[in-house]
Amino acid sequence: MTDWSTIKDLPTTRLEQLFADDPERLAKFSLDVAGIHFDLSKTHLTREAVAAFEALARQMDLAGKREAMFGGAHVNVTEDRPVEHTAERGEGKAESLKRAADYHARMRMLIDAIEAEAFGPVRHVLHVGIGGSALGPNLLVDALGRDSERYDVAIVSNVDGVALEDVFDRFDPSATLLVVASKTFTTTETMMNADSAIGWMQENGVEDPYGRVIALTASPEQAIEWGVDETRVLPFSEGVGGRYSLWSSIGFPAAIKLGWDQFAELLEGAAEMDRHFRLSALHENAPALAAFADLYYTQVRGCETRAPFAYDERLRLLPSYLQQLEMESNGKGVTVDGQPVGRPTAPITWGGVGTDAQHAVFQLLHQGTHLVPVEFLAVIEAGDTLAEEHHRQLLLNAFAQGAALMKGRANPDDPARAYPGDRPSSTILLDVLDARTLGALIAFYEHRVFVNGVLLGINSFDQFGVELGKEMAKAAAKGGGDFDPSTADLIRRAGLE
Ligand SMILES: O=P(O)(O)OC[C@H]1O[C@H](O)[C@H](O)[C@@H](O)[C@@H]1O
Question: What pTM does this model have?
Answer without folding.
Answer: 0.98
